Structure formats: C-alpha cells, structure tokens
Amino acid sequence: GDQQVPRPLPDQRVVASGGPGTGPWSSSVGGAIDDWLLVSPPPERAVIEIIDSGTYHEGGLDIALPRDAALEIRSADRQRPVLDVTGLTVHGAGGGVLRLDGVAVVGSPLRIGDGMAGVTIRHATLVPGRSFDPEGVAEHPSAASIVATTDASGCPVTLTNAIVGPIRLPTEGW
User: Fold this and answer.
1) Do residues 87 and 62 make contact, with C-beta atoms less than 8 angstroms apart?
2) pLDDT tens digits, residue range 108-151?
3) What is the 3-state secondary structure (H, E, C) of 18-64?
4) Model confidence over 53-92: pLDDT tens digits?
C-alpha cells in the first residue's frame, strides 16, 4: 500500500529497511546514531524513529552519548521493529538519557554504563532469555535483560508497559 513518507524534524533520524540511506534517512539504527553524532556539535536530543516492523540486524551497538545528551529510539505508530543485536551498551560523558519506546530487542541484554542520568523502557520488549527456540521457549531463561555496571550506580531505570527478563544491578549504590 501507499505509505506516507514522514518529514523528519531537525533532531530526528528516520530508519526504514527500504529507506534511501541519505540525509535524515538511514537503513540501520547504528547508522542513524552515527549520523547524529557526526553533526558538530551534535544536537542535545535525537529521535530515531523506525517506520516499519522490520528486523534490524545491528551487530553490536555501543552508544556513547555526549554530555547531557538524550537519545530516543522509537517505533512509528502501529509498527513493531525488532533490534537483533550481539551487544547493546549505553554510556555517556555525564547526564546521558536513553529511551527505548515501542521496539523489541533480542540477542543481548541492555548494558548500562557510566555517565547515564536515566534509562526509560516504554512499550518495549527486552526479550526475556535473549531469544526463543522454535516452540517459543526462552533459550537462556536466567539471562538478564538489563545489566548495570557499578559505574552506573544511581542511574534511574524506568519500565513502563515493558516486558523484560531478570535485571542485574550492582549491590552497592542503588
């Protein structure tokens, strides 16, 4: 069918498996993050909106947020994209904020490092057990969906209408 092409805002990058891959468009989440960070200086806020329900094989995503930067990775209305990652780490230079909204993450836990002021998981799934076998059973049922390092102590993690597996936090500072 006809899909209306969104007009990105100045702080927004659009990701689509069939996108042209130029300007505000990217064919991968990692590419969109790189495009945002290449702007000098990078805007304090970025929204990466995935406009289809595709599966994005991203490999390892190591997101290093600039000081006081906020990054939102979200699905477009009525879409449910899947980020298939071998690693997903977020850390920052201080005051960083990450929001995952409407996406599903498989393959690896979200690792929260130092320099983060907040992480929000909203209407999203961090697949418990990292992945499912053909019968829908978690392949690693005790594997954490969220892991915070000792350096991340005190970073609030907010879950709203989210599905996650175990959460591993440091014993000190939380």
Assistant:
1) yes
2) 999 999 999 999 999 999 998 888 788 878 888 889 999 999 88
3) CCCCCCCEECCHHHHHHHHHHCCCCCCEEEEEECCCCEEEEEEEEEE
4) 999 999 999 999 999 999 999 999 999 999 999 999 999 9
**What is the residue-wise DSSP string for 150-165?**
GGGTT--EEEES-EE-
User: What burial letters (b/e) apply to 155-170, b meaning 16+ CB within 10 Å?
Assistant: bebebeebebbeeebe
- How many other C-beta atoms can be found within 10 angstroms of the C-beta atom of residue 40? 5
SS3 per residue for 64-132: EECCCCEEEEEECCCCCCEEEEEEEEEEECCCEEEEEECCEEECCCEEECCCEEEEEEECCEECCCCCE
Token pair recorded at residue 147? 């892991």
How large is the average pLDDT for residues 6-26? 61
* This prediction's pTM: 0.87
- CA separation for the pair 76, 20 (Å, rounded): 17
Buried b (16+ CB within 10 A) or exposed e, 89-113: bbbbeebbbbbbbbbbbbbbbbbbb
